[in-house]
Amino acid sequence: MKTKISQINPFECSRYAFAFEYINEGGGKWLDYGCYDGAFMNKVMQNKQVDFVGVDKNADIIQINPYNMKIIKIDNLPL
Predict the structure, then answer these.
(1) Burial zone of 34 (CB within 10 Å; 0-12 exposed, 13-18 middle, 19+ buried)
(2) C-alpha to C-alpha distance for 59 and 39, rounded to whole angstroms
(3) Higher per-residue pLDDT: 79 or 31
């Protein structure tokens, strides 16, 4: 099965483009696990009305937070 990439999709044909297509407009809240600097969340929020929270373990990049996104640091998950 192939996913059609819409014209509003800001990503080239990639895993990000695929994920973008499955996030519905007004689609509630989303968690970006391993979000790094929040670039993906930032692009999606520029094009769709959704709430994002990112989590990552890289404290340095979270401190920089170039897109001013809601990113939470995680250390260890008891999985």
Answers:
(1) exposed
(2) 16
(3) 31
